[in-house]
Amino acid sequence: MKIARMSPVEMNLEARFDAYVAEEKKIEPKDWMPDAYRKTLIRQISQHAHSEIVGMLPEGNWISRAPSLKRKAILLAKVQDEAGHGLYLYSAAETLGVTRDQMLQDLHKGKAKYSSIFNYPTLTWADMGAVGWLVDGAAIMNQVPLCKCSYGPYARAMVRVCKEESFHQRQGFQVMLNLAQGTPDQKAMAQDALNRWWWPSLMMFGPSDADSPHSAQSMKWNIKRFSNDELRQRFVDMTVPQAELLGLTLPDPDLKWNEERGHYDFGAIAWDEFYNVIKGNGPCNKERLGARVKAYDDGAWVRDAANAYATKEAARQKNGNTSTHAA
Ligand code: FAQ
């Protein structure tokens, strides 16, 4: 780590670190970092990874029921992308010294969180539209600034993730548009999905700034670049005209343009519901965690086989043989 204009002896490690971050420079895995910075990143990146993997479940549920081959292929590709995002993120977290097994154990025991949004059920095909449009839309709003986060491996992972999320958001909007321009029943189905996903999507940004214990420090470290409320407001401002274009109504009687602020005002968020969901009591928490634990247990033989193969290969290498040409 090189700090311009300041000699290392003049500054202790933490002050050097703070100055380095303030200069918008990237921290890399082997750089010195405060323990609390490392812990915060492990918490956030692993929870982000868990969200991607658990987030495959509500949409995976619809792959076999998509209304056409084209929609099935798109949805399948999207769900696979989410798996890829989880893998980049677990890898980024591993660079901080935590093992993937430890992260998964924390998820399975309910110690590590994942996004509240994935604890709601996907009841109709229109939910695939609403999830892509709103959930991926909110995810991008939150993740684009993370491309500039101070931790190099996380920032770089986010660049690719955001490109893919923007395709996801557009395909969701397209599903909504087709339904909104379809029969009255299809339009009603789209409206119903919007009614159910709107408020949980606003909750994705986390508690309001006044109740967000981690925000101040994470912003100081350039991990978070905007506060939860700032990003939530941007999302509302971006989405209102999109809903108008769809001819659908956002389920908020208090939503209105505020000329003075230059933003939309919106109604009160049901924070009791949010806290209830993140405590494990949402409509699908038990089902989602159960599905993840089962997938992990069912996959034990694959991990065992891969490990056995790796051990055998290592032994062959050690004995000077290569597996394919030994015979
Ligand atoms: N759900 O002090 P803050 C996606 C927790 S990816 C559950 O504000 P922070 C892609 C928070 O962890 C969606 N818990 O915390 C996709 C903390 O608890 P802890 C995931 C939440 O970290 C689309 C406590 O509340 N995205 O959707 C939530 O500074 C479609 C206090 O909160 C990311 O993870 C919540 N919504 O800010 C996949 C982005 N909000 O850890 C499939 C990266 C807060 O002390 C299909 N993460 N909590 O026990 C972030 O930007 C931040 O971590 C925030 C929370 C903004 C989520």
Structural description of this entry:
63% of the residues lie in helices and 2% in strands. It is an all-alpha fold. The chain has a two-stranded antiparallel sheet with strand order 1-2. A hairpin with a 4-residue loop joins strand 1 and strand 2. Helix 2 packs antiparallel against helix 4 (69-94). The model has no long low-confidence stretch (mean pLDDT 94). The protein binds Phenylacetyl coenzyme A (FAQ). Phenylacetyl coenzyme A binds at residues 43-44, 47-48, 51-52, 55, 82, 113, 115-116, 131, 135-136, 139, 142, 203-207, 212-215, 218, 224, 228, 278.
Task: Provide a concise account of the structure shown.
It contains 13 helices and two strands. The protein is mainly α.
Low-confidence stretches: none
Structural class: mainly alpha
Assembly context of the chains = single chain
Residues in helix, % = 55-70%
Strand content: under 5%
Separation of the first and last Cα atoms: 50 Å
Strand order of the largest sheet: 1-2
Count of DSSP strands: 2
The run of helices and strands is: HHHHHHHHHHEEHHH
**Average pLDDT reading:** 94
The main β sheet shows up as: 2 strands, antiparallel
How many alpha or pi helices? Answer: 13
| Ligands bound, unique | Phenylacetyl coenzyme A
Rounded Rg: 22 Å
Shape: globular
Topology:
Blueprint: H1 13-22, H2 35-54, H3 56-60, H4 69-94, H5 100-108, H6 126-143, H7 152-180, H8 184-203, H9 215-220, H10 228-246, E1 256-258, E2 263-265, H11 271-281, H12 285-298, H13 300-318
Helix pairs in contact: 2-4, 4-7, 6-7, 6-8, 6-10
The structure holds Phenylacetyl coenzyme A.
